[in-house]
Structure formats: C-alpha cells, structure tokens
Amino acid sequence: MSALAKVIALFKQLTAGKNMSFRKDATDLGSPSDDAVTYCTKLIGGFKDKANHNKAESQFTFAVVVLASLISPALVTLGVGYFWGKVLPACLSLSAAAATSWLQLRKPQRLWTLYRQCQRRLEDQLIRYRYRLDPYGANQDADKVLASATADVAMEAHLKWEGLVPNSDGLEASLTGSPRKPGSRGKPRA
Questions:
Q1: Phi/psi class of residue 91: alpha, beta or left (left: φ > 0; alpha: ψ in -120 to 50)?
Q2: What is the DSSP string of 130-173?
Q3: Which phi-psi region, left, alpha or beta, contains residue 125 (left: φ > 0; alpha: ψ -120 to 50)?
C-alpha cells in the first residue's frame, strides 16, 4: 500500500460518521410558533451571512494567489541576500499553491454564488407574498405557500451544497490524477 493510499485510508477512518465542520451553521430556523414570514426572513439572513462569508473567503484567497504569484518571481530576480532572494519567494510560492488548492477543494466562489442565489430567491418570494403577487394573490393559504416555497429553496440549496463538499473519493482522485481500482496498477479505470 502506497503512502498516499495510507493517508487516504486514515482520512476515511477519521471522518467516518463525524461532523467535520470547523464553524457552526448560524442559520436560525426559528421555532414552530414562528409564522411563514419569520421563517423566510430567518433563512434569508442565514443565506446572506453564508454568502458574505464565502465572498470574503473567495476574494481574500484569490488575492493571495495573485499577489504571491506576481511578487515571488520579482523577489527571485531582484532580491538581495538569501532571505529576500530564496526564502521569501519560496514561502510566497507555497502560499500561492496552498491558496489555489483551497479554492479548488473548498470552492468558496461556488458557495458564494449558491447562497446569494438562494437569498435572492427567498427575497423574491417574500416580496411576492407581501404584495400578493402570483402565486399568493387570491390564495387563502398564502402562508402555507410561502412556507413551502421557503422550504423548497432551503432543500435545493442543501442538495446543491452536497455536491460541492469534498469527500475522500474526490480527494483521492485529485491527488492521484484519476481514480483507480483498489489493488490495480497501470492504467486508470474509465
């Protein structure tokens, strides 16, 4: 078993059935006594916070990649001494590589888009509800329709989010270049 396979197997063991979240989900779903408008408003706030977080993370990480990639060659060329000509450029190159990997693995730009889209869709539903636009116009159960539309957006966001979460199989594929059958050597499977 190669060292990479051992690391991946250890990762699978450590993460099996565990919540590996580094931050708490701040979305407030409210209580059963909340009305549909409160439920929708709380989800809008949660999606807004998540979108803002991922926007900041995405922009910061991208800035690290760009700045480190641009400054590093200049320091190699113009840097005087061992620290400025070798150590600092190497650290900057490592930072750019790490930030690039983070962007590719975590995909904060995609999460930012997903959460902002959900926020806007819920805001649209809330405006339609408040001004009794379609489908809330003459509907006697407008609160139920709003609650149902809100729950649908939340579930759709979760299902799309699941596809963006890195897993050990995706990690193996990204590290090795392509997935292989266990115990196989040579060509990757199709």
A1: alpha
A2: HTT-TTTSS-TTHHHHHHHHHHHHHHHHHHHHHHHS--HHHHHH
A3: alpha
Amino acid 173 reads A
Q: What are the DSSP calls for 79-139, one per residue?
A: --HHIIIIIHHHHHHHHHHHHHHHHHHH-HHHHHHHHHHHHHHHHHHHHHHHTT-TTTSS-
Distance CA 68, CA 97 (A): 9
pLDDT tens digits for 76-93?
999 999 999 999 999 999
Tell me the per-residue pLDDT of 119-174, one tens digit each, with 9 for 90 and over: 999 999 999 999 999 899 888 899 999 999 999 999 999 999 988 877 766 666 66
Q: For tokens 């708490």, name the residue.
A: 24
| Torsion sign over Cα 104, 108, 111, 116 | negative
Amino acid identity of residue 59, one-letter, is: Q
Token pair, residue 180, equals: 């292989």
